[in-house]
Automatic annotation (TrEMBL):
Transmembrane segments: none annotated. Belongs to the WrbA family. It comes from Galdieria sulphuraria. PROSITE patterns: FLAVODOXIN_LIKE. Residues 47-59 have a biased composition (Basic and acidic residues). SUPFAM superfamilies: Flavoproteins (SSF52218). PANTHER family: FLAVODOXIN-RELATED PROTEIN WRBA-RELATED (PTHR30546), FLAVOPROTEIN-LIKE PROTEIN YCP4-RELATED (PTHR30546:SF23). This is Trp repressor binding protein. Residues 70-261 form the Flavodoxin-like domain. It holds the Pfam family FMN_red.
């Protein structure tokens, strides 16, 4: 008691009085250290979280420098589809992120039938052989072009699809992007039904169909002049005798498909 009166517990002389205060100080110090440790822990966890988020953001953002392999595979008898194919290629080229190869599918008609049809010589683009089928497996995207035959895709393109059974079996084309363009002789001749017959080919092969939708713009709604193409893709009318050539609208739409496909392929990967 005497020591209590003489000291008030502030000088640390008396064990009796000093102990609770020292304990409190020690407790305070310990709590302070704990707090500091916790704050450090939280800070380092925040830094770690931010770094992870930054990494995830970078991974999710499309790699602007990445290049994509795109094949354009077409069949033409009179050259309309070849014209559209070149324009689709131009559109892809303008995007600047695609390496493009243009191929024809093998002809299935005998020479004498082609002669009867009045078919001009074939374009110079190489024919995609069976040995080159691995190009499809290596591609990021494939765009097919074909004229209609009796409202459905032409037999040459169908035969080509039929020859891909070995890739289908291995699932080599699953998840790749694909689009198409088409031509018909007349307005009611199959602009839409031909597209429909192509969709089933893509579906079975596991190809992801990229329709152009209405991305080409408001002219798609115009009745000013007849034009091929639809939300399924660009198209042209050859005319009953094949003399009509792709119109400016149809040509621009074909180029648009190339540009649009390049955008989608970048966004997709
Ligand atoms: C055997 C045969 C069947 C055809 N069937 C259709 C048809 O059903 N509807 C149509 O609009 N045009 C039809 N056409 C016209 C072609 O679609 C037209 O010639 C083609 O679209 C032109 O494209 P190309 O110049 O690239 O060969 C047919 C042509 C041939 C030779």
């Amino acid at each position: 008691m005497s020591s209590l009166l003489s000291c008030f517990g502030c000088c640390g002389d008396s064990e009796e009085i000093n102990t609770p205060s020292a304990n409190r100080n020690a407790e305070r110090e310990a709590a302070g250290t704990k707090n500091e440790q916790q704050q450090k822990k939280v800070a380092s966890a925040t830094v770690e979280k931010e770094a992870t988020l930054e990494k995830q953001k970078k991974e999710a953002a499309p790699d602007q420098s990445r290049r994509f392999k795109v094949l354009i595979i077409y069949y033409t008898t009179y050259g309309h589809i070849k014209k559209l194919a070149d324009l689709v290629k131009e559109g892809l080229e303008k995007s600047g992120n695609c390496d493009i190869e243009l191929f024809q599918v093998p002809e299935t008609l005998p020479e004498e039938v082609l002669k009867l049809l009045g078919a001009p010589p074939k374009p110079e683009d190489p024919i995609l052989t069976f040995e080159q089928h691995n190009k499809l497996a290596e591609a990021d995207g494939i765009i097919f072009g074909f004229p209609t035959r009796f409202g459905a895709i032409c037999a040459q393109m169908k035969a080509f699809f039929d020859s891909l059974g070995h890739l289908w079996q291995k699932g080599s084309l699953n998840g790749k992007l694909a689009s198409f363009f088409f031509s018909t002789g007349t307005q009611g001749g199959g602009q839409e039904t031909t597209a429909w017959t192509a969709i089933s080919q893509l579906a079975h092969l596991g190809l992801l169909y990229v329709p152009s939708g209405y991305t080409f713009g408001s002219e798609m709604f115009s009745f000013e002049e007849p034009h091929g193409g639809s939300p399924y893709g660009p198209g042209t009318f050859a005319g009953a005798d094949g003399s009509r050539q792709p119109s400016p609208y149809e040509m621009q739409y074909a180029e648009h498909l190339g540009k649009y496909f390049a955008t989608v392929i970048r966004r997709f990967h």
